[in-house]
Amino acid sequence: MLKKLAVLSLFLSLTGAFAKDFSLLNVSYDPTREFYQAINKSFIDEYQKKTGDKITIKQSHGGSGKQARAIGDGLEADVATLGLAYDVDLLAKNNLIPSDWQKRLPDNSAPYTSTIIFLVRKGNPKHIKDWDDLVKPGVAIITPNPKTSGGARWNHLAAYGFALKKYGSDAKAVEFLSKFYKNVPVLDSGARGATTTFLQRDVGDVLVSWENEAFLALQETGKGKVEVIIPSISILAEPPVTVVDKNAKKHGTEAVAKAYLEFLYSDAGQEIAAKNYYRPRNKTIAAKYAGIFPKVELFTIDELFGGWTKAQKTHFDDGGVFDKIYQGGK
Fold first, then answer.
1. Fold that domain 18-113+238-292 belongs to in CATH
2. What pTM did the predictor assign?
């Protein structure tokens, strides 16, 4: 018995001696704070049990486009969990990741999905039911700036797609978006800033929002103060993730960063996604949480806009649709 205890003690001491400490920086888009706090805790516990290694995970949040540019300018993210594929493509253009990064994880490296819905004041005083109601005179829309926010670009394309499907032409869709932006009193740099403007500053009649952000706001604010409105049609939002290879290699965190992102696809990771109002990819877990996600007709970025590269150039690059509509401000 004493011999067995001695062997066990030696094993544990050797395990401790070989255990490593790792630090990861997850640079993410605006409304993922709470989600990744929960992911980090669960992943750290699981990884330490498997390997003995200790991990510290730091988070950085902001508008997705702004975050992508920050990584390109030298912010040493080990992983990037951004709002849309175009922003991750910028990392490839900066030679931080391979150009085929989407092939490295399932579902084009997007472990969960979301969509765009509305949040309105108690009692819905402006009677907002669908996208058409947003462009009526006297309705103040809160949405972030597409130049800095991934969520704002999804919002823009969701509204454009609705108009394109309903009115049948790009000209009519541009006209619809012109009315939309005329009703926007302020453009925050990111989705969380827009939520703060709507909820804490009490600006606006409707917040056009990520689905998870709207439900989180409803939960935190308390029912009776705001209400969720589901439009008749919206866009399938697919926020992607990637290891930032150049930085992870420099930091010696490649294996840990890869395991961290793979954890998002695990049953535990998918459960955490659902509990934070992201739509899980795992069909079994999606079915388990089906009751919390409203049914809504969804179109895709490829279906209506030819993918993110084309959509970015047409709508959000300098001189694109957004610039022509908004003319740099009001």
1. D-Maltodextrin-Binding Protein; domain 2 (3.40.190)
2. 0.91
